[in-house]
Amino acid sequence: MVQALDDWLLRQPTLVNARKRMVAPVLLQRQQLADSLCRQLERLGLQRKEREVTLEDYLEKRAAEAKREPPAEPAPAPGGRADGDEGGGV
Q1: Residue 47 is assigned to a structural domain of this protein
Q2: What is the pLDDT along the chain (90 residues), one digit of tens a residue?
Q3: Cα 19 to the chain's mean position, in Å?
Q4: pTM metric for this prediction
Q5: Quick one: how far is CA 43 from the chain centroid?
Q6: What is the biggest distance separating any 2 CA atoms in the chain, rounded to whole angstroms?
Q7: What domain range includes position 49?
């Protein structure tokens, strides 16, 4: 939500009302929303934690991904077709 609001704010030509000499009210509301979200996350105890990955886990995951990928088609031979036939035919 905050990210969408930030995007919208950045697209605006100006955030200051020169006639009233004040910032747009949406800017203050955005700050309140961001602060509220931060407080809620702190209450929940959500903190970013890095997941430990061992080398064995990483290699197993890579091997599983490699098995799922279809085999690559052979590249055509220079000057000919992929099956080795030059196409000269008799």
Answers
A1: yes
A2: 788 888 888 898 888 888 988 888 888 999 999 999 989 988 888 776 778 888 999 899 999 988 887 666 666 666 655 555 555 555
A3: 40
A4: 0.45
A5: 27
A6: 88
A7: 1-67
Residue 2 tokens read as: 């905050």
- Domain-embedded: residue 17: yes
Tell me if 60 sits within 8 A of 54, measured CB to CB.
no
Say which amino acid occupies 9: L
Judge whether 52 lies within some domain.
Answer: yes
The DSSP secondary structure of the chain, one letter per residue, reads -HHHHHHHHHHSS-SEETTTTEE-HHHHHHHHHHHHHHHHHHHHT----PPP--HHHHHHHHHHHHHHSPPPPPPPPTTS-TTS--S---
